[in-house]
Amino acid sequence: MDLLTRIANEVRAGEPDAVRALAAEALAAGVAPAEVLRGGLIAGMTVVGDAFRLREIFLPDVLLAARAMQSGLEVLRPQLAAGGVPTAGRVVLGTVRGDLHDIGKNLVGILLGGAGFDVIDLGVDVPPERFVDSAVEHGAAVIGISALLTTTMVGMREVVALVRERGLADRIKVIVGGAPLTEAFAREIGADGYAYDAASAVGRVKQLVGAA
Ligand code: B1M
C-alpha cells in the first residue's frame, strides 16, 4: 500500500501518532507537501465525512479523525508556510458563530501565513462583533470567515452588515469560504470575496489587498 493511502487510512482510524510519522516519512521520501495534504489527509477526511453522513461511524470517530488530521497538518505546516515574506498585510481569520469546525480554517491560515500575511486567528464560534472589533484593533485589511454548516453560514451575513454599518467597507474586505458555500451565496450576502479552497483563498486575499 502506498504512503498516501496509508496516511488516509490512519486519518480514518483516528491515529495521530501514525499520521504524524507517515506524513514525515512521505516528506522525507520527497512527496510534495501539497500531495500529502490532498492525497493523504484530505482524502482520509473525505472518507470520514461520507461514512458519518451514512451513519456508518459516529461523532467520536469523526473527532478522533479530526485530531489525527491536525497532527498531520502540523508536520506539513513549516513546508506549506515556507517562503513567505511577512509584509503582505494583516488578515483576521475565524470560524463563524455557532460553528466549531476549524481544520479548513487552519489550513487557510497556514497558507496565508506562508504567502506573507500576518494572520490573527480568532478560533471558532466567533461572534460578528469580535471579527470587526479585532480587524479595527489590529488594522487588518481583510476578515476571513469559515463555515462548515448550512445552519451557521447564514451568520456570515451579519459580519458583512456590521462592517458596512460601521462605515468600514472601503478599508476592510470580507472573504468567506467553507464546504457548504458557493460563489452565489457569497455574492448574495455582500461579501467581497469567496474561495473554494485554501489555496485559492490566498489568491483572492491578494487580489483584495491589491497585491496580486
Ligand atoms: Co462536522 N459536519 N459536525 N464535525 N464534519 C460536517 C461539516 C458534515 C458535512 C458531515 C456530514 O454530515 N457529512 C455535517 C454538516 C451538514 C450540513 O450542515 N449540511 C456536519 C455536522 C452535521 C456536524 C454536527 C452538527 C454533528 C452533530 O453534532 N450531530 C457537529 C456541529 C458542531 C458545531 O460546529 N457546532 C459537528 C462536529 C464535528 C466535529 C467537532 C466532530 C469535527 C470538527 C473538528 C474540527 O474541525 N476541529 C467535524 C468534522 C471533522 C466534520 C467533517 C467530517 C470534516 C470537515 C473537515 O475538517 N474537512 C465534515 C464532512 C466533510 O466536510 N466531508 C463535517 C477537511 C477540511 C480541510 O475541509 O473544512 O471543508 P473544509 O475546508 C476546505 C474548504 O471548505 C475551504 O478550504 C479547505 C480546503 O482547502 N475553506 C475555506 C474552509 N474555510 C475556508 C475559508 C476561506 C476559504 C476557503 O476563506 C476565509
Would you kindly provide a written description of the structure presented here, covering whatever features stand out?
The chain has 212 residues and is of the alpha/beta class. It folds into two domains: 3-83, Methionine synthase domain (Methyltransferase, Methionine Synthase (B12-binding Domains), Chain A, domain 1), CATH 1.10.1240; 90-208, Cobalamin-binding domain (Rossmann fold, 3-Layer(aba) Sandwich). 55% of the residues lie in helices and 12% in strands. The chain has nine helices and five strands. It has helices at 3-13, 16-28, 33-53, 59-80, 103-114, 128-138, 156-165, 183-188, 198-208; strands spanning 89-95, 117-121, 142-146, 173-177, 193-195. A five-stranded parallel sheet has the order 2-1-3-4-5, with helices on both faces. Helix 1 runs antiparallel to helix 2 (16-28), helix 4 (59-80) packs parallel to helix 5 (103-114) and helix 5 (103-114) packs across helix 9 (198-208). The protein is globular, with a radius of gyration of 17 Å. 42% of the residues are buried. The mean pLDDT is 92. The site of CO-5-methoxybenzimidazolylcobamide (B1M) has 37 residues, from helix 3, helix 4, helix 5, strand 3 and strand 4.
